[in-house]
Amino acid sequence: MANKEKGYLALVLHAHLPFIRHPEYEDFLEEDWFFEAMCETYIPLLDVYERLTAEGTDFRVTMSVTPPLCNMMADPLLQERFRRYYSLRLELAEKEVVRTRNTGYYEVAKMYERKFRRIRELYEDYYHGRVLDGFKKFQDMGKLEIITCGATHGFLPLELRKEAVHAQIKLAADDYRKHFGRGPRGIWLAECAYNPGDDVFLKAQGIRFFFLETHGIIYGSPRPRYGVYAPVYCPSGVAAFGRDMESAQQVWSAETGYPGDNRYREFYRDLGYDLEYDYVKPYLHQDGVRRNIGMKYCKITGKVQLDQKAPYNPAEARELAASHAGNFMFNRERQIEHLNGFLGKKPVVVSMYDAELYGHWWYEGVDFLEFLFKKVHHDQKTIKMVTPSEYLTVHPDNQIVQPSMSTWGDKGYNEVWLNGTNDWMYRHLHKQVERMVEMANKFPSADGILRRALNQCAREVVLGMSSDWAFLMTVGTAKNYSTKRFIAHTHRFNGLYEQIMGNRLEENYLKDIEWRDNIFPEMNYRVFSTEEMQKAARS
Amino acid sequence: MTSSGQIKKNNTAPEAEHKALPEGYGTTEAALLPRDPNWMFIYWEITDNSKNNARKEHGADVFEKGRQVIRVYDVTGGEAAKYFDIPVMLEAKSWYVNVQESGRSYCCEVGLVMPDGKFIGLVKTNTVNLPGGRVSDVTDERWMAVTSDFDKLMQLSGVEYIGKGSGEVAKSLAQRWEMLRAVFSRASSWGVSSMSSQNLQKPAQKKFWLVADCELILYGATEPDAFVTVSGRKVTLNPDGTFSMRFALPDGVVDLPVKAMSKDETDSREIDIKVTRATTHDGK
Fold first, then answer.
1. Are residues A453 and A516 part of one domain?
2. How far is it, in rounded angstroms, from Cα B136 to Cα B261?
3. How far apart are CA A495 and CA A509, in angstroms?
4. Which chain B residues in 38-67 lie under 8 Å from chain A, judged by CB atoms?
C-alpha cells in the first residue's frame, strides 16, 4: 500500500469572520453572521469529523480558525447568545414538522429538526459549549491541521510599519497557543495577501508555511521549477504553497461549479419571509423586520422566479453531493496522474476555499466533503490526502523562490482593499499604528490603569486593521456597519491616546471600551514596540 | 451604532460615535501604497505651517506661481534616476498614480514646479516596490533543462484564471440576488400564499368552518443613504439599503407610492404600487 500514490491532495478551508460582539445591545443583527456560520459550517464540519472518526475513515484537512473566530467561540456572552439562537430554531423546526405534515415540505422540515437537535447535542453534550475543544481533538489525532491567521485578519501589504505586521503575527501565534496548546505551524495570510519579506515575521513565531494565490508562486523569482505543484521556500526558509486553480474553479465557477445545480437548496428563499408574520415573529429580531432566519424549504429549481421554486428534497440533494464528490475525486485522480508524468515527481494539489462556502453558501457542501473524504479513503489509490506539515516532513527539499506580491482578491492584487470606496481609511489607520508604536516605545513597562489603557489601545488598533471592513465597503454589503465599526475603533483609540498623552485617564471611559471590545484578554501592548519587531526580524 | 436592536436600559452613556473622523492630524506627511503592478495610491497632509514656511523661503506667491504636482521617482536600485510629474491640486489630499513600468520601486514627492523649472518639494513618501505582474526573467541555471516546458506548466497551474478567485463567487451570488430582487419586487405577492401557517382562530360554536385573510408586504431597496417614503411616511432603511413593511389589507384599493431621494437630493425615483382587494363570502 505504502507509496503507491501518484500525488497528494491538500484540502485547505479558511474559516473566518470579523470580531462582532455587541454587549451594549440585547439583540444585534450582525452577530447572526457568527451564529449562522456555527450552525451551517463550523459545527456541521465537526459533525463530519466525528462521524468519519467513529466509522474508521481516515482523512486529512487543513483549516484556519482565525483569532477573531477563536475569540468569539470562546466568549461566554456569545456562547449564551448562540444557545438562544439554535434553541429558537429548534423550537420553530419542531413546530414546522407538525405544520407541514401532508405537505411537500414535510421532509425538509424534518431535516431541520434533525439538524438543530444534532447541533444541540454536539454543542452541549460533546463540547460543553467549547467548540474549540472539538477542533483541538481532531488536531491532536493528526487528522486536522489547524492554522492561524493575522490577529484580526489584517491586510498586511497596505501597512507602512513593520511593527504592525509583527503585532498581527505575534498576537495570532500567542492566541493560538492559548487555545490549542502548542504553537501554529502554518498561517493563512488574510486574503492570501503577501508582501515580499514579511515571511521573516512568520519565521520568528515558528511558523513553517503559508498559502499563496497561483500567481504569487508563478510570478516568483527565479521561476518555480514545479509551478504550484510543489511548495517553494522563501529566502527566510518559510514554505509557500500555491493554489491549484483547476480544483478551485470546479467548485467556485458561476457557470459550471457544483453549487449551482438545480437540485441543491435555494439560498434566497427563506422562511423568515415565507411564513405568516405572527407565526414567524418570535424568531425574528426584536425590531420585527422580516429577514433570513436560515431555514429554507426550496431547491434552486431553475431560472424561475422565487415564488416558482419547488420543494427541496434532502435525499435527492445528498445523493447529488455524493455524485459531485465522485466527480471531483475522478478529476483529481486524472490531474494528479497527468502531473506526475509531466513533472516526474509526486505533485501536491492544494485546493483552497473559504470554509463558509461549505454549508453556508453551498448548503450541501459539507455533505460533499464527507463523501469526498470517504471516497478518497475507500475507492482509490492515486491520491493521498496530506496536511502541509506532513508534506514538508516527507519532502523537506524544495526550491528557493522569492514569491511575488499577490492576493486572492479580484484582479489578483490589492485593489479590493484599496479603491474609491475605502481608501479614506488608511491615513487614519496608519496614524493609529504610528501612535501605538510611539506609546509602546515610550512606556517600556507601564502598570496599573496606564497599562490597561495601553492594552486597550492595542485592541482598538488591531480591530481597525481587519481587512473585512475595507472588503465590505467594496462589495457594498453591510457597508454602513463596516464603516461605523472602523470609525468607532478609530475614535476609541484616539480618545484613549489623548487621555494617555495628556496624563488624564478616565477610568469609566476606559472601562466602557474594555467591556465592548474584549478581544485578546491577554493583550500586551508591547507587541507594538520597535524593539520587539526588530528582535523578531533578526531571529 | 447599529441597525437593529434595543439599547439596554442599564447601558452606560452611548459614545459620540457619529462624529466625523479628524480632517487631518496636524503633521505634514505623505504615504504611498501599492495597488497592483501599475497603480499606487498616495495620500498627503500639508499643514498651514508648512505652507507658510514655503512662502517665507520661496516668496509669498509661491503657491500661485508654481504648478502643483506629484513628482514620481523611479528609485529602483536606490537612486532616483528618472521621474515624471502628475499635475494635481494640493487640496485633493490623495491620488491614484499610474506607472508604465511594473516590477520597479517608486517614491513620490508632492511639491511645486516653478516657472524657471525649479522644483520645491513639500512632502515625500515612503518607497513602494511594485510586483512585476508577469513571469520572472530570472531562471535558475540548475533548472534550465525544464524551461521549455514552462509554458505548459503555467497552463496546468491555471495562469489564465489569475485574478478570478473568490471574488467571482461573491460577484455571481450578488448578481443573482439582484436579479431575483428585481424579479420579485415586481410580483405583488409571492411568499405568503403558498406557505402560510394554520394560525388562524377557529370561530366558536361552528361545526364546519373556514377563515381566511391576507396581509400585504412591501419590499424594496435603494442606496443605503437615500431618503425613502411610502405613502408619505418616512421609511427606515436597513444598512444595505433594503426595506420592508407589512400592511393590513382591507377591501378596496390601496395606493402605495414609494419615493426615494438620493442623499445629495439631486436624484429621485418613484414607484407607484396600487393593490386592489375584493373579498366575497360564499359568493356574496
1. yes
2. 52
3. 9
4. 39, 41, 43, 45
Task: Give the nearest chain B residue to A218 (CA atoms).
Answer: B135
Pairing of strands A61-65, B233-235: unpaired
pTM, two decimal places: 0.82
The predicted pLDDT at position B142 comes to 36
**What is the per-residue pLDDT across A428-464, written as a single tens digit (0 to 9) for each?**
999 999 999 999 999 999 999 999 999 999 999 999 9
* Range 207-246 of A in CB contact (< 8 A) with B: 213-215, 217-223, 225-229, 242-246
A88 and A209 share one domain: no
Q: How confident is the model at residue B34 (pLDDT cuts 50, 70, 90)?
A: very high
- Confidence at residue B245, expressed as pLDDT on a 0 to 100 scale: 72
Q: Does B165 map to a domain? A: no
At which of A411, A442, A469 does a domain end?
A411
Q: How many domains does chain B have?
A: 2
Domain ranges, residue A137: 7-73+131-256+317-411
- Closest alpha carbon to A158 in A414, A344, A447, A520: A414
Mutate which: B107, B141, B143, B161, vs A, most A CBs within 10 A: B161
A238 and A273 co-located in one domain: no
Q: Is A350 a member of any domain?
A: yes
Domain end call among A411, A436, A452: A411
Residue A2 lies in a domain: no
Note whether B162 contacts A215, CB cutoff 8 Å. Answer: yes
Quick check: is A453 in a domain?
Answer: yes
Cβ A480–B3 below 8 Å, yes or no?
Answer: yes
Number of domains chain A contains: 3
Residue A261 covered by a domain: no
Q: Which of A26, A252, A275 sits opposite B8 (nearest CB)?
A: A26
Domain range enclosing B80: 29-129
Report the 10 Å Cβ neighbour count for A77: 13
A289 contacts in chain B (CB < 8 Å): 4, 238, 244
**Domain boundary, last residue among B110, B129, B148:** B129
Q: Chain A contact for B165, CB < 8 A?
A: yes
Alpha-carbon distance values, A152 to A41, A165, A252, A315 (Å): 20, 11, 26, 39
Whether residue B273 is contained in a domain is answered as: yes
> A113-123: per-residue pLDDT in tens?
999 999 999 99
Q: Is A450 left (phi over 0), alpha (psi -120 to 50) or beta?
A: alpha
A414 contacts B35? CB cut-off 8 A: yes
Q: What is the rounded distance in angstroms from the CA atom of residue B100 to the CA atom of residue B38?
A: 6
pLDDT the model gives residue A353: 92
Which residues of chain A are within 8 Å of residue B166 when distances are taken between CB atoms? 252, 353-354, 408-409
A310 torsion bin: left (phi>0), alpha (psi -120 to 50), beta (else)? beta
Closest-CA distance of chain A to residue B200, Å: 10
